[in-house]
Amino acid sequence: MSGAKNKDARPPTFAVSVVGLSGTEKEKGNCGVGKSCLCNRYVRPDADNYYPEHTSVLSTIDFGGRVVNNDHFLYWGELSHRGDEGLDCKIQVIEQTEFIDDQTFLPHRSTNLQPYTKRAAATKLQSAEKLMYICTDQLGLEQDFDQKQMPDGKLNIDGFVLCVDISKGCNRKFDDQMKFVNSLYSQIVKSKKPIVVAATKCDECVDQHLRDLQAFVASKKNLMLIETSARTNVNIELCFNALIQQLDKTRGKPKTVPYLEAYKTQRQLVASVTDKFEKLMIHTVRDYHTTWKTVTSNMKGQPDYDEFITLEGSRKALSMFTKHIAHLKQEHVKRRREEYLTTLPKTLNNLFNSLDEVEHLSWPEAQSVIRNRPDFHYWFVVLEQTPWDETNHIDNSDRRIPFDLLNTLDAERIYHSHVQHLLSEKRRVEMKERFKRTLERVHFISPGQPWEEVMCFVMEDEAYKYITESDRRDVYCRHQQEIVEKAKEDFQEMLFEHAELFYDLDLNATPSCDKMSEIHSVLNEEPRYRALQKLAPDRESLLLKHIGFVYHPTKETCLSGQNCVDLKVEQVLANRLAQLDHGHSNLYYNSANIDKINLCLLGKEGLSQELANEIRAQSTDDEYTLDGKIYELDLLPVDVNSTLLFSHTWIASFKPHGCFCVFNSIESLNSIGDCIGRIRAEIAQSRRDRFAQPLPFILILANQRDSVCKNIPILRHQGQQLANKLQCTFVDIPSGAFPRKFTEFQIKQGLRAVLEGLKHSFDVLTPLPCIKDMTEMDLRIVMCAMCWDPFSVDLILSPFLDSHCCSAGQPGQSNTLVLDKIIGDSRKRIQVTVLSYHSAIGVRKDELVHGYILVYSAKRKASMATLRAFLAEVQDVIPVQMVAITDSQADFFENDAIKELMTEGEHIATEIAAKFTALYSLSQYHRQTEVFTPFFNEVLEKKPNIESSFLLDSSLRECTTGASEDVFPTSPHSHSPAYNTYYPESDDDNEAPPPYSPIGDEVQLLPTPSERAKYRIDLEGNEYPVHSTPVGDHERNHKVPPPVRPKPVPPKPNVKKLDPNLLKTIEAGMRSNRRLQRGPVPHLEEVEASDNYADPVDTLLRSRGYHNDDIYAVPDDAHSRLVKIRNSFGGLHGVHGAEEENGFDRKSQAGRRPSKYKHRSKILFSKTKAYQRRFQSDSDGEESCPATQKKKKGRAHRGSEEDPLLSPVDPWKSGIDNPAITSDPEQEDKKMKKKKTPKTPKEPKKPKSSKPPKPLYPPTRRTWESNYFGVPLQNLVTLEHPIPLFIEKCVDYIERTGLTTEGLYRVSGNKTDQDNIQKQFDQDHSIDFVVMDVAVNAAAGALKAFFADLPDPLIPYSLHPELVEAAKIMDYIERLQVLREIVKKFPSVNYQVFKYIITHLNRVSQHSKTTLMTADNLSICFWPTLMRPDFENKDTLSTTKLNQAVIETFIVQSDYFFHGGEVAESSSSEGTPPPHCHNMVEALLPLQLPPPLQPQQIQHSLHPDPLI
């Protein structure tokens, strides 16, 4: 041991000799036992420094080099060893081997010639300047490697490592090796140095060899076996450590670890280090373009990298790096492929979006189609090198798909799935459409209905099951949009159809609450209104938009948008009239001084040639003398069937100045008519210049050979008709017999007509007149059409625009054209302004119009309704031409709706004596201006009357402007101030009104101005009729005769209670009343209630010697009707009345007072009134409430326009609760006709006795026979069932379903529904209202109708006076007691029903928060039904409020009256004295109206004295 136990501080150094089987291949086999690998792994364990191959076959040169140095041993170098205890030592490693000559394959000769076994056991070695061995490559290249010398050139061996290869070996027997080992061991052991046996190549271990070796080691003393593997670096260090421990006993004995266990630990370490290195590389290397050099420079120094390099080496690291880079590249390619494959379906969708295109194409065929598409290069790129993923294209930013990708299976799969998608999409679309059709068949789907409510009804549908929920919702949403759109369109159309309901509104105003509730109550009966029930806000919005349009009608706010007539007309006129100027330069003729006339002669079967022969016979050398001038005639006879007529060129080449059309039969006349139409069409088409000179046509009737032919009158009539239609001249046969077919007279007449036509054309085609000339129009006509009507405005403009006499209007009047026409015997300039009805309203009010052409579509009710609403307010002095538009005459016979609208138009025209015509869009004849010639003639005749009426109207309007306090001072819908003020007195002043004229505020038809004045007195100061003038203004109006000075009126004691303004009104009224003394007043029987206006009583009675200080008649509060004189013109004008029906003077209307057309037409009048009458009757007196009345200014006067011939004569029809009011107006009209003849003034009546009036039997409102309704009450009850079953059913149903219904008993139900309830009950008393799904308001109406139909009222007439007297009692408790006693006097049947119905009404009143029906409101609705007063009796008028108060008391105190309960508290009635009268004005109920006039509601009773 060299330097062992050295005293100095240096660590000990041990030299270890590694020995084992060596020698030639014959001795050791073709590979060694692993000595070199063991040494290598121990001395230089890093993987990069480990060389698995060490050869022992060397050249002589290498053997002699400094590394081998001619020795059979190698010096492996020195390394420091740190033991577990921290003790250091140095280990020098020697490997004993035997080098073989590569030439002789025998051992090299060396200095030591001993055999290996002896040589290897040597403990002292010497070799001067021997270098450390590293690897085989070092031999001969020593200067390229690390050079270290063996210290001192000599070594003393301290221990041995004996290597035994336990692997299978290379053609070497293990036994032979063991023999060699045995021999070697025996030599080594002699040295007495420690020995460790190393079992090498344990990673390829043969178990038997290991057992044999273990047995060998066990047989030796102190011999230790270590299982090693240099390749896997297992137990190498342990092997040497074990030897060192034997060399240095101070060290702890190392634990011997079996190979497998040590290998496992080593593998875990390698796996851990490899994992860390992988993570480091993944984290560091993200781009597959990165180089290994870059990676190593970045990673060096990082523990995870260094550990891996140490354990596994750079080569393995590079291998892992290469794999990682390949993986990155693969991922990149994969991503690109996925991108392309994702883009491919979209691309296919763009290239093949039609199933028909690809359904039958294979994928290769489809590729071929794609390749040939023009946009191929937009989607695809063709690469020179393929496949694409192995080329640089993977790094290309080009996102187009490489075309070679389409050859992959993935691409083919995508194509087939695209085709499948198109198929399934087609199926899906089909199913969606099928589901849509299913929804269309489900009729109960209403607009705005949620999908969830409908879903359950369509779940079984095949299409429903096929499509997804989102598709279902999508289809349903689309369906909803359609039905909502349709419902909104229908709703809008319905609003137009109710034109009369809206067109009594005024411009620039706001509708009152009452007006809105009226509108809603009327519209509520319409299914198209109820259809939008679930979209109430939208419906309200549409309604308000419509009302907004009615109030502010302009083409900008027109609901039809771009379909507004005004816009369309402007466009058409701008386009068509713009060509006007071109016409002046393109004339055939440059002067009217014509001396040559080209005549075309048109006839059938040779007639034209005969006419040519006749003309030539009258000519001299084709020269014809006419009126002293000679004309050269060029004749062109043409047969109507000639092909020449169909040529475009004959007119241009022949240039005819006129055309003689000759006929002698109906057949030839018809042919001529068709022919003229064709020629005109040809001219229009062949000339760009529409305004070039027209061709005059002259119709000539040929004489028959036997001049007594019966057809002549018919032919003459037909010929004249066709000439009128075509606006051409008709030349008749002159009287007297003559032998030839044509006379000289006829030919001359025809030539004159041609010349006149030419002269007329030159006049028309002269340059346009200046503006001054333009303004001087002879007639101003307004044509009105409805927006959205189903015809083109070209149709209604064509009669003007296709005429040769049409020109543009003034600049700035874009909807006006001018006609220059011969009317009568002179030429007139007619200005035609074409407007929508909404624009025409302002014109109707403010501008002078000589005539209206009112157009409507016979296909559209709304069009007729708008015409009616417009026409109703037109002054009846202005002529009207009504025009119905439809496609063809066949429509009238094939379509009932069209027939009905055309018939209605004709009826209205007949009633108001207007012209009526129909235009057919499929016919050519309407394109003649002559359609309107008769109308223009009528307008011209009436022009003076129209203008004088307009001037008077204008002056009166100036006088009355601002005088009325009405909310709507200037209503375009009802402009009639001229009719409400006075003409100067004249003979015609007393002329009776036209037929169907009302007596009311708007058109005052009383006999004299002074008597008319009484209508101006109105206690509700500002509730004058719209255009009435307050009394004070009449005195400023120069057209009013001076008033008679009234006698002074003695002051009345209680008048001071009145408002000062009211006093002034009353005094003014009293002064005015003195004007009424001109004529007798009809009997009070002829007085009927009307619109809440109070008239002075002395107006009615003073003239008959009746004196009373009570000046004012009571307004009939309960049902809002005005006391007015019915048939007064009959009564006051006995002379007219006796001679003529209706008191209508048949003199010329020129001198009469102008009215409006609605008063001349039953249809217009009844339509205008239908809404209001229904509203008044349906609302059952609700309007009597002062709070609601004050809002109805501007409408109040309309009630008084009731025509006595149209409004109900019988008092039951004027009452509140009579459903008959809502019956068919035609039925009423028939009844009225019987009562139309006015009565002559009767003798004054005898004084009336004060006994109760005789019962009144109301006319039945039913149209069917009934054995239940209308029979006495006692016939319907028994002792067991004291209440009629029908009443019980109605009350039960109303209390179960209707106690939340707003306006119960006030808002009337549909009359048809009411009748239906009663009819059904008639047939089956056991019907169930719930099953019938009866509307609550209909049930309520049917209940009230039951009481209205009873022969006697429920409250007997005999008790009415007692109830009235009781109502006057001041003390409330006393009043209740007296009323209770009176109730006990009811017949028992009546008492039981009265008790039942009043108790029911009490229950209803308890729900007034929701129904808004308080006891007061209920009493207003019910008292006329329960008491059925006689409104012709003057006493009734005075007790209206008292009767209502009585019923209210019964309702409020029903417990007290009928059920023995206590008196209920009543804040409204207790302690308040009832309204009554003791010859003074009392019980004022103030209305909340604006100053200066604070009108009061005055209650009083008339004096009981009889009339004298």
Question: Any chance you could write out the topology, listing elements then pairs?
Answer:
Layout: E1 13-20, H1 25-28, H2 35-43, E2 57-58, H3 60-64, E3 73-82, E4 88-96, E5 100-101, H4 116-120, E6 124-126, E7 154-156, E8 159-165, H5 174-188, E9 195-200, H6 207-218, E10 224-227, H7 236-247, H8 259-284, H9 292-299, H10 303-312, H11 314-351, H12 355-358, H13 363-371, H14 376-379, E11 380-381, E12 401-402, H15 409-441, H16 451-458, H17 462-466, H18 469-497, H19 499-502, H20 513-523, H21 527-530, H22 536-551, H23 565-577, E13 596-603, H24 607-617, E14 623-626, E15 629-639, H25 650-654, E16 658-663, H26 666-686, E17 697-701, H27 712-726, E18 729-731, H28 744-764, H29 771-775, E19 779-785, H30 793-801, E20 806-808, E21 816-823, E22 826-836, H31 837-846, E23 851-857, H32 861-872, E24 880-886, H33 890-894, H34 896-911, E25 915-920, H35 933-960, H36 977-980, H37 1009-1012, H38 1031-1034, H39 1060-1073, E26 1087-1088, H40 1097-1101, E27 1124-1125, H41 1128-1132, H42 1134-1139, H43 1162-1178, H44 1186-1189, H45 1196-1199, H46 1211-1214, H47 1225-1234, H48 1285-1297, H49 1311-1323, H50 1329-1332, H51 1336-1349, H52 1360-1367, H53 1372-1383, ...
Parallel strand pairs: 1-4, 1-8, 2-5, 8-9, 9-10, 11-12, 13-15, 13-16, 16-17, 17-18, 19-22, 19-23, 23-24, 24-25
Antiparallel strand pairs: 3-4, 6-7, 14-15, 20-21, 21-22, 26-27, 28-29
